[in-house]
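DEPOSITED CHAIN:
***
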Amino acid sequence: MKLQQKTQKFVRYQHPNNNIYYGILDGNEIIQLSSNFNEIVNDELKYDGIILKYNEVKILEPVIPSKIVNFGWTYAAHVKETGGIENLKEPFLFLKPQSSIIPDQAEIILPPRELTNQVELEGEVALIIGKRGKNIKEEDALDYVFGCTIFNDVTARDLTRKDPQFTRGKGFDTFGPLGPCIAKGIDPTNLRIVTSLNGKVVQDANTNQMTFSIPFLISWISKVMTLEPGDVLAMGSPAGSCPMKSGDTVVVEVEHIGKLCNYVK
């Protein structure tokens, strides 16, 4: 992936007129675009002359993907803390439904206690795919990445520990906070991730500590399923996953991208 001279941050939001737009984030202002997502990934930026304050709009999920692909156990310390399988020869894979996605500042709704009694946070870097790809070569993999965003892979840990697959424990509504923006022109292979729970740091790691390289993961998954523009690839959680309760505030911060803040209810 060729790095840009300057990082661009794209946000998707609801204007006070209730219409939904993409815009370029510039400090505390949004330069509104009339371009849709496909035009943006093809660098067809159409400015409509409107500039808004960030706090004047409702920030939405940065994309509505055809699929949310999650790689598990990509950090050795997280494998140990969750009782996962160490030294995997192939990535551990699961999907989340589109209905799990919520934006920055939205509420994570805890399921009833009879369904799960241990819901945990997992702060992650996520990639947004920019062009269709199948059987991608590892050396070309980063060319298929439009940009990076932040993901919280909310997990019902008691369910993933007993279910033969992770769909139920990962798939509840609101279990996929995503955003607040897509940062284009940054290197996803060297990004610091810091997650805080009620102001206390519980995760602090870097994507350079992953046991699988990001280009390898992109290439590997493209042999299984075709990647489409807007698809989300969540790169896995470092150590420090911990339970959340109603009333908690979770902030996942990734350098060069920003902060994803959500409230537990």
